[in-house]
Amino acid sequence: MPELLLPSVATILTQRDETPDVRTYALRFRDFAEQGRFSYRPGQFLELSVFGTGEAPFCLASSPTRPGGVEVTVRKCGRLTDALFALAPGAELGLRGPCGNGFDVDAARGHDLVFVAGGIGLPPLRSLIWNVLDERDQFGDITILYGARTPADLVYKDELREWERRDHVTVRVTVDRGAPGWEGSVGMVPTLFDQVDLRPDTSLAYVCGPPIMIKFVVKDLLARGFAAEHVISTLERMMQCGVGKCNHCCVGHHYLCRDGPVYNVREIEEMWE
Ligand SMILES: Cc1cc2nc3c(=O)[nH]c(=O)nc-3n(C[C@H](O)[C@H](O)[C@H](O)COP(=O)(O)OP(=O)(O)OC[C@H]3O[C@@H](n4cnc5c(N)ncnc54)[C@H](O)[C@@H]3O)c2cc1C
Ligand code: FES
User: Fold this and answer.
1) Which of 12, 130, 145, 224 sits 20 to 30 Å CA-CA off 90?
2) pLDDT confidence bin for 1, thresholds 50/70/90
3) CATH of the domain spanning 2-99, picked from 2.40.30.10, 1.20.1050.10, 3.40.50.1260, 3.40.50.970
4) CA–centroid distance, residue 200 to ligand 2 (Å)
5) Strands 92-99 and 45-50, how do they pair?
6) What is the CATH code of the structural domain delimited by 105-234?
7) Ligand 2: which atom is nearest the Cα of residue 242?
8) Which residues contact 47 (CB under 8 A, 6 or more apart)?
9) In what order do the strands lie in the sheet with 22-29?
10) 231 Cα: distance to centroid of ligand 1 (angstroms)
11) With a threshold of 0.85, does the pTM exceed it?
12) How confident is the model at residue 252 (pLDDT cuts 50, 70, 90)?
């Protein structure tokens, strides 16, 4: 199946700096027919290549309810992302995907939804949040809890404000360390739970962020009465092929790139047994 490993060519349409080292790219396949055929779920990811440099996985940060292109939000941290940041709109990239399982949007219909993100964990949840807001009448109340190290590290600042203005959407933001001018919460993400009305019986919770943040958030959600099946997260590993062929991402019998990266906490617990 050569198409699994063969990148398509995409063009950078626009780029927007979120923080000094995080940038959101809008991309479109060079072939319009291919762009039209491309479909995906929130929580899936792309293998993105900078020609002559290499390839790495990045979550789809846009919503499938908004066709015509895709968005990824990238933190600059090494060889590939340095090369990506050196490109400008109009430049061409390689794209493979969508890879992975993604979130089960249909299973979320009819539920209240709680999104908990830390740092660069917000992009995959942003995809699901816009999907849900674009099909608003099919979901219950929405709670979005987001934390970053400092105010300067918060991504999607305009969208956080826009989400907050929507009916039946509650947004709370915190930072680990404040800064001059910051009047919001200071503290780790779990401190936000006491600021909102959590309803474990009717809610699904989606948690993305650094592993240490996920660990404490999940523990807290379970202690507050969420069933392990109703807490959904993403597992990250170093990946190469992204399609279950190279063995780089195995955990037990799972290829996280193909069978994951999205699992509920019951499945994650069973994986480590
Ligand atoms: C499924 C998946 C989705 C991802 N989505 C995003 C995204 O939306 N936005 C984003 O900015 N990044 C995302 N990443 C991480 C991204 O793929 C890596 O940061 C990328 O490899 C960086 O490439 P580089 O050559 O610039 O840096 P490298 O030189 O490869 O790495 C820089 C540093 O990051 C570490 N690193 C690289 N990959 C990972 C990983 N998977 N887990 C932990 N540490 C790692 C390396 O050990 C090194 O210390 C995702 C990773 C996975 C597996
Ligand atoms: S990254 Fe190759 S098998 Fe998962």
Assistant:
1) 130
2) very low
3) 2.40.30.10
4) 34
5) antiparallel
6) 3.40.50.80
7) 1
8) 7, 55, 56, 57, 94, 95, 96, 97, 99, 242
9) 54-59, 45-50, 92-99, 8-19, 22-29, 70-75
10) 24
11) yes
12) confident
Atom of ligand 1 nearest to the CA of 83: 26
Query: Which residue has the CA at smallest separation from atom 47 of ligand 1?
Result: 238
What residues does ligand 2 touch, defined as CB less than 6 Å away? 239-242, 244-249, 255, 257
Ligand 1, residues at Cβ distance < 6 Å: 45, 56-59, 72-75, 77-81, 120, 123, 236, 238-239, 261
- Closest atom of ligand 2 to 241 CA is 2
pLDDT, tens digit (0-9, with 9 covering 90-100), for 182-199: 999 999 999 999 999 999
Predicted pLDDT at 4: 80
Cα–Cα nearest to 240, from 6, 46, 53, 56: 56
Q: To test the ligand 1 pocket, which listed residue (58, 127, 241) has its Cβ within 8 A of the most ligand atoms? A: 58
